[in-house]
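Protein in question passed on here:
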Amino acid sequence: MPAAVFNDRVRVDGKFFRLGDSKFYVKGVAYGPFTLSAESDYFPSRELARSDFQLIRELGANVVRTYYPPPRWLLDLANEHELKMLVDIPWEKNRCFLDSAKLKQAAREAVRRTVHECAGSQAIFAYSIVNEIPPDIVRWSGARAVQKFLDELIAVAKETDPACLCTFGNYPPTEFLRPGSVDFFSFNVYLHQRKAFESYLNRLQMLAEDKPVLIGEFGIDSIRESEPAKCDILAWSVESAFRAGLAGTVIFSFTDDWVVAGQPITDWAMGLTTRERQRKPSFKAVRYSFGKAPYFPLARWPRVSVVVACYNGARTLKACLDSLSRLNYPDYEVIMIDDGSLDASGQIASLYSNIRYFRQTNQGLSSARNAGIAAARGEIVAFTDADCRADEDWLYYLVADLLDGEFAGIGGPNLLPPEDSSVAAAVMASPGGPAHVMLTDRLAEHIPGCNMAFYRGALEEIGGFDPIFRKAGDDVDVCWRLQQSGYKLGFSPSAFVWHYRRSTIRDYLNQQQGYGEAEALLVRKHPEYFNALGGSLWKGRIYTSAKVGLMVRRSIIYHGTFGTGFFQALYAAPSSMGIMFCTSLEYHALVTIPLFVFSAPFHFLLPVAIASLAVSLGICVVAAFQAELPPNRSRPWSRALVGWLFFLQPIVRGWARYRARLELQPRAWSAEAPPHGRMDTGELLQQFCYWSQEDLSRLDIIRSVISTLERTHWPHKEDTGWNNYDIEVFGNRWSRVQLTLAMEQLAGKNRIFRWRVCAYWSLASKLAFWTAFGFEMLIVGVVAREEPWLWMLLLTIPVFGLFLEQEKRNLHRMVAAVLDGVARDNKMVRLEKDESEGELKPKSA
């Protein structure tokens, strides 16, 4: 590495580090402490240190971790050998330090002194402000208080050297500690089973979210495990760490010569060299692995087609295409679909000879992505947006994790670019941004459209993207349809893109309006994924900088019996989404606005109306304070802006959703009728009974009904295990029907199947009816004394009710026709109750 580059400061770059223009992957080794020497209390003589550093360079390492602050001469020696140093700062962590003002001040002084003494040295990589706080001490003081103190120590370090990187040495017994101001997470992990180790790395990646993860210590004892076993374990640990997308790993330790509390350790041999600095076989194993890191070869390198759908994206398109031109992947193509842009997008794309450019009339996002799939030559099709800038290893990690799991598709994080504005940072912390939803540490329920990849065959099998999604929602629809087809989706935490957020409030609200319109389409196509108010129902955890609900309860930590658990996990309390209803459009329409309207004739309601509005605003204020803002782009007005966006977003998005649902044409009965036609008998029975001799099961009949509904594109919801019905069928926006099936087992293959059919008004019907009733009563009550004829308005209420009832009856008849058709297909006989005998008999023609 050129000296000018090495002398730069290492900085955080997304999930990784960067030194100069290149990524800096930590290939580290722990060093010391050693027995007392003439020149230092914890380090060897200069001559021995020089020899050690030569061996460390031969090892292929670039970082040396020390457990005590190094003297200046050692820093200079490291700089001479182009080694960076991760410096631990010791203080009395093993005592109840938060109970003692003296101990806390001593810790602050230790941090300040160490950073001051090391400041200016180009050999410094980062400071670890503490290493492995005992879990019982954390339990005694409380996790929040300890986190706050760690943040305070980091602030002390950055007061002395603002550009320094800070972390702390964590480990599984205190994995729940997550100070907000660490630049990266460092974990000491000693798991010697490969599967368990790799699973824990996945967990650490999800805990760290958008910050780099470093294995601060991993080592094997030559005495207990044997040297050959040590070679094997260290080799796969390095490979696993880098394949998992970690920013690096530190091997413990360089030599068997190390001390604890001034006493030499003789019954452990964790070193890569002996006490006499003789290379062990494990030295060669680590050197080989460090030499291959970070890019271990994949099992194969399938061709990837990267599709960029662009509509008026000139502002960020150059950064996007520049990043896609230098991806670290051997076999890929870039396809840009210009969806009728009116700006300079086409001219910008023409500057790139390596881009396959296609232009079409403006048909929407899904159509553009389908055009990209049609033009693709790769086995895998990856998607990003014109407002994204891909990390150079984006495809490497996406493809690696896609090949490693049983996934049809995979996604990754989208991070705020460091050059983006403070307004964009506030937008990122506001609700409604693109986010991934995780079922486990690897299995995803949803991956955002700005960073996703799929096997082309899987996309073609489900028919690609649905063109009805012109602005948004296409990624959600594809994820759901793939999962409904039996496929799984994965997540690669290090395959990230930088995603430029909306830089103005107007752009942000326009985006949310588009999301609301997309939700209306999704509700109609996938009603099973939404609640009665149109809110999406996710099974997994949503990972986003914005809070999806208020945190009203503290998280719970599992400490193990008597606080002795080795893995002490944090169980985050679920966000309270019910409270967020008070910020919704529905709440304002049904509560706040009517209260203000009714307060005109009834003045005593005015304080209640004001209180209702204050509740909504108060929730937005609390949500703004709970939002996670990047410290370097937080301004005095940032949280006020986030709170204002928390107030506006649900109104704008909700209004767009309802407007789009109203503008959608109701489902025509003739177009959506099942193949067996409409039931003309006019019967509205609550039960339909059928007799079969075909040895059919209850699930066979349920699946037949579902198949008919899917074939005729009827929206429906299936039982998830928590319902009292088997299928819920949606007609137009006014009604729904719930179906429940019971089977009576008779002699031989004889069965009787009983369907219970319950028709209801939809929530929209109920809201519309009672809202109309309330407003008409208000009008009549206020002005009917002067204008008696206004009492006639009340006649419209029963007329509207009759209309809703007729819509419900029509859906009831249609569903009955479906049941009759399925019965005929399965050679079943319709039964009816004989009133004279009270028994079921075949229905007369």
Q: What stands out?
A: The radius of gyration is 32 Å. The longest strand covers residues 735-745. Residues 667-682 have pLDDT under 50 and may be disordered. Residues 213 and 762 are 49 Å apart (CA to CA).
